[in-house]
């Protein structure tokens, strides 16, 4: 007898180890984790997502074809203990997770149970095998996404012509994907499945067990089955992908979804296979349902960026989780948990996150990440916050995206420059500034957009590191053009911002 243990994000029959499953002897083992320390700092939607997926998956397993054992325990280790006590002669099959902390928990359990025969398969959910990343990202090399993305396009024949050239004559159409969305443009709402009886029961349990965690379990809106995820994908391909390219970097108040796919949580939880998603998008281009800039941009997020950050995580952990190349040490302000700030871009992003457990990638990078970096927030506090607040968060997703891309805390291992910006970027890509009490066109003083002075302050603090960066030399020329009066106003404005920030009144 073999027990096939699946973690909460591994609930799919596509897991490779299940190919040898024998229903006459074997069992699938699922353990729903309830320990307070695993969930108490986070968003209620994360708990609902995990438990509802596990319960739906267990219900979907026909007892004659996929007999299973389902437990509710504080931690999955207790479930493994219980299962092995009931079946002491059984073998255990694990699908080795990408997340380092989950691996360590499994390693420790195995070390404590040397008599158990344990077999392994690599978890599904990725296109590039984990072992290949050491060659893709050599320790003595310079890591860049673009050549890796091109290689993957060729290897898997994605958006390639019969002559072996990229469709449209270019590998990326990112420059076409930076339009500001018109105020009167509306997007079809994503086809998020309704809450069924199982999910509603989970919501009630989460609300009762974790009343002091963030968000509202009752507003949960993510697919929790493969069927629901496929419906969300099909609707995105048919109705939302067409405008995704043009406006994927745009932001609009009270509109967190816009025309984004909302598929990240489903893909990260193994409800969808990433290559299937890519093929659906590619077919939409060839069928004339969506333009190339939209399809290529969407595919690049999955085949390019998603695979790339997983590779960075695999070759860099565990040391990566402690990086702080810029030496930032300020605590995150309360606004990250409450949304209480007069900065409209921050207020709208955080309150939307509290309601939905989601924001799109530009809000994550250029609002939340940008602000945290400009104020010099501790990288580990920022990454922990992202991990606990987003429904689609797993450790391998969060650390490279936050520590590497958003905060430059890895010193440039995976990006060539920090993604910092003044209020002018927010003005260019959104309508926030028009309705904000702060004036984006003012550089100094109490009414000026805080991002403006914080941006110049960041450049000054880290001048030794970035002045000679080829992508930042022009920026430093602008900084050098300020006169003594401007320098004095800048200093006073930054001091005032941090004073208000410390008093939670920014």
TrEMBL record:
Family matches, as Pfam families: DPRP (PF04244)
GO molecular function annotations of the record: lyase activity
Lineage: superkingdom: Bacteria
Cross-referenced InterPro entries: Crypto/Photolyase_FAD-like_sf (IPR036134), PhrB-like (IPR007357), Rossmann-like_a/b/a_fold (IPR014729), UV-DNA_repair_photolyase (IPR052551)
Keyword Nucleus: no
Keyword Protein transport recorded: no
Keywords in alphabetical order: Lyase
Protein name (record): Deoxyribodipyrimidine Photolyase-Like Protein
Protein species of origin: Salisediminibacterium beveridgei
Lineage of source species: Bacteria, Bacillati, Bacillota, Bacilli, Bacillales
């Amino acid at each position: 007898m073999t027990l096939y243990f699946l973690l909460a994000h591994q609930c799919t029959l596509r897991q490779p180890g299940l190919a040898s499953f024998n229903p006459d002897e074997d069992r699938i083992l699922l353990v729903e984790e309830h320990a307070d320390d695993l969930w108490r700092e986070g968003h209620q939607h994360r708990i609902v997502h995990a438990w509802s997926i596990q319960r739906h998956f267990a219900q979907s397993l026909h007892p004659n074809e996929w007999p299973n054992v389902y437990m509710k325990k504080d931690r999955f280790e207790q479930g493994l203990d219980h299962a092995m006590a009931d079946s002491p002669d059984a073998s255990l099959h694990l699908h080795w997770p990408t997340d380092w902390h989950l691996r360590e928990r499994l390693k420790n359990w195995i070390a404590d149970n040397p008599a158990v025969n344990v077999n392994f398969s690599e978890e599904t959910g990725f296109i590039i095998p984990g072992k290949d990343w050491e060659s893709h990202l050599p320790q003595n090399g310079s890591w860049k996404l673009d050549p890796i993305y091109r290689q993957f396009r060729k290897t898997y024949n994605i958006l390639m012509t019969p002559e072996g050239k990229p469709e449209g004559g270019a590998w990326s159409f990112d420059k076409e994907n930076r339009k500001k969305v018109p105020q009167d443009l509306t997007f079809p709402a994503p086809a998020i499945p309704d809450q069924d009886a199982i999910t509603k029961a989970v919501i009630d349990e989460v609300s009762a067990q974790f009343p002091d965690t963030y968000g509202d379990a009752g507003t949960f809106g993510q697919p929790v089955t493969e069927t629901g995820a496929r419906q969300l994908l099909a609707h995105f391909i048919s109705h939302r992908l067409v405008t995704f390219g043009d406006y994927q970097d745009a932001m609009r108040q009270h509109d967190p979804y816009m025309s984004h796919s909302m598929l990240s949580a489903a893909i990260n939880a193994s409800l969808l296979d990433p290559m299937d998603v890519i093929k659906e998008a590619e077919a939409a281009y060839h069928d004339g349902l969506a333009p190339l800039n939209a399809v290529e941009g969407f595919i690049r997020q999955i085949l390019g960026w998603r695979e790339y950050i997983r590779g960075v995580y695999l070759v860099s952990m565990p040391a990566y989780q402690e990086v702080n190349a810029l030496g930032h040490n300020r605590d995150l302000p309360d606004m990250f948990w409450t949304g209480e700030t007069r900065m409209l871009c921050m207020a709208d992003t955080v309150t939307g996150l509290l309601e939905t457990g989601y924001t799109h990638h530009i809000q994550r990078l250029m609002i939340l990440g940008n602000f945290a970096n400009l104020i010099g927030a501790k990288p580990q506090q920022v990454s922990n916050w992202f991990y606990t607040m987003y429904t689609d968060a797993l450790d391998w997703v969060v650390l490279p995206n936050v520590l590497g891309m958003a905060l430059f805390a890895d010193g440039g291992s995976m990006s060539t420059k920090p993604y910092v910006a003044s209020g002018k970027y927010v003005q260019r890509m959104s309508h926030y500034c028009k309705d904000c009490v702060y004036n984006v066109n003012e550089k100094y003083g109490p009414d000026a957009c805080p991002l403006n002075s914080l941006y110049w302050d960041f450049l000054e603090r880290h001048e030794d590191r970035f002045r000679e960066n080829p992508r930042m030399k022009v920026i430093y020329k602008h900084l050098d053009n300020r006169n003594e009066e401007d320098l004095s106003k800048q200093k006073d404005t930054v001091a005032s911002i941090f004073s208000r920030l410390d008093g939670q009144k920014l």
